[in-house]
Each structure stands twice: as C-alpha cells, then as structure tokens.
Amino acid sequence: MLNRREILACLSVQPLARAAAPIPTGAKPVSHGRINAGEGPVWHPRGVLYFSGRNRITQRDAAGNVSVYRENAGSNGLLIDRQGRLTVCEARSRRVTRTDSGSATTVLADVFRGRRFNSPNDLTIDSQGRIYFSDPRYGARSSMEMRDSSGHLVEGVYRIDAPGQVARIISHEVDRPNGLLVSPKDEYLYVADNNNDTVGGARKLWRFPLLNDGSIDSAGRELIFDWLEGRGPDGLEMDQAGRLFVAAGRNRPNPPFESADRYQGGVYILSPAGDLIDFVAIPVDEVTNCAFGGTDWKTLFITAGGELWSIPTTSPGWVPYPRDRPI
To answer: Which of 206, 208, 258, 288 could make a disulfide contact with 216, Cβ separation 3.0–4.6 Å?
Structure first.
C-alpha cells in the first residue's frame, strides 16, 4: 500500500499559502478500538462524543469511557443544535428527531406531502437554527415513497424550520445526497453526492449558494471535488481556517461499483476552492464521517468500519455555536 507521501504525490496536492498545515508534522491517526463507531460522530461541548453504529447511539466521554446512550436508535447522522440538544437522523424509522437534556424526544420531520422519507442520512444547521438533512436510499428501493410532481423518485435535501415544518430544497440537482455542511455566515451549502452502489454514479462534492430564505441557488452550483470511480464523499466538516475535511475513498475495491486504484480510504482535506491540501489515511473500510472535538476543538474524530479514530489538527473545528461556552 502507498504511504502518505506517495498518496499525496499521486493526488497532486496543492501547496499551502499563508496557512499552517492542517495536520501537525508527524501526527498519525490513532485507533480507539471497534466500539460500534459506524457513523455520525458529533462532539457535545460538555465533553462527550456521540456516534451511531449497530442500531444504537454510543457516547464516549473525555476520559475515553464508553457507554450506550440509546438502544434501538436506527440512527445515522447526529447533530448538536444551538441549544445543545441531540438531533438524530433515524434512518430506520425514516424520520428526524430531537432529544433534550431530559431525554424527551420530539419528531421534527417524518413525512413530506404525506409521504414517508427514504432514509434520513446526515444533517447540518444554519445560524438561524434551521436544520437541513439529506434523504438518500441505499440498498433496497421497493419501499421508497418520495416522488416529485411528475412521479419520479426523489432522493432530496430538506430544511426543517420548526417541528413538522419542512421544505424540500434539492430534488434532482444531485444524484444521491449524503453528507451536508452549511458554511459560516450561511453562505454555502456543501452536499456530498455519493451514489456508490451504482456503476457510473456520482462521487462528487458540490457547493450551492445558500439564500437568505434557506433555499439554494441551483444555477450557482459548483463542483468542488470528484472521486471519479472510487468511493465518494460521505460526512464532512470544516475548520476555523475554512478547510474542508471529507471522509471518502476505499482501501479495497468493491467491484463493480467502487475502485480503490486512486482514492484510498481516509479524510481528504480540501481548500474552499477544492484543492487537495492534505490526506489522512485510515487503514480500514469504510471511512464514513468525521467531527471536531476535544477541549480545544483540535481533535478530529473519524468513524470507519465500526472503529473510532482520532488525529490532532492545527486549527479548531468550526461549529455554529460558541466553542468556549457550554450549552
């Protein structure tokens, strides 16, 4: 297998200008074991990392102690909202919920125009507290209900303005939306387009201008990065320097759908313009998602194949609430 330097050379990494390297010199990812860390990591300011896997939500405290937060969750993406509440894409139940500090659960979205969602996957939040979530369908498609006015199946992106108040903002502008990120100042919505179980499907990261009303400017869509025939982008985050950290790639091919020839499994660190700045190789498949955390927000946690990894970074992660004030 290629080492990190060889991978970066093959991928034509762009030189950094006026910014420190995103990963400290000599730093390597550390495994914290196979602790059901399959997806959706998110750090709560009180010092707890949550993640999804094996039909439960697990929590890991700052000392490394691991416990089950919720059994039978059927969850994927997780989010801490601006009030510190855990918001969950319950893929199995086809809904998005929110849990407050007292464990009361509120259903934020379970239907749109009378139809059940496909499998809510990932979510992000803007400065007004509006939540955006992706709704792809991986695997069997016979139970899909979501369609457009012409009767075509939709794997879309939705915005939640309040419980039960849902708008569809992306219908067919991407192939199969997965990871989402609203950038600082609500300027852009990044969408990971990952149709990884279809030969020739999209494996791309897009950026859409985000308008004041929470809709997108589809005409302003920009391609940020393309993983070609490899495993496409899944979850993504951004640091305080504006760099994107994207989980993608494979270490072993998944024929006939995904190649491992060029884009190996790990975290791809991109400039806002899509230049590849650095790459964090993770030796297990599949690398699904990442989240910043730690007391200084300079630890990147990575989920891959049920295993939790971490690596230090030079810049804190960007989150849509005060990092220095517990919520």
So the answer is: 208
Q: Write the DSSP symbol of residue 153.
A: B
Residue 16 Cα distances to 53, 275, 317, angstroms: 36, 10, 18
Q: What are the sequence ranges of the domains in the chain?
A: 4-312
- Provide CATH code, domain 4-312: 2.120.10.30
pLDDT digits (tens, 9 = 90+) for 246-302: 999 999 999 999 999 999 999 999 999 999 999 999 999 999 999 999 999 999 999
| Pick from 42, 188, 209, 46: nearest CA to 122 | 42
pTM of the model: 0.93
Amino acid identity at 109:
A
Q: Which of 123, 132, 134 is nearest to 156 (CA)?
A: 134
**Of 80, 50, 53, whose CA–CA distance to 66 is shortest?**
50
64 contacts 316 by C-beta, under 8 angstroms: no
Encode pLDDT of 126-175 as tens digits: 999 999 999 999 999 999 999 999 999 999 999 999 999 999 999 999 99
Compute the distance between CA of residue 316 and CA of residue 240 in angstroms, rounded to an integer. 6
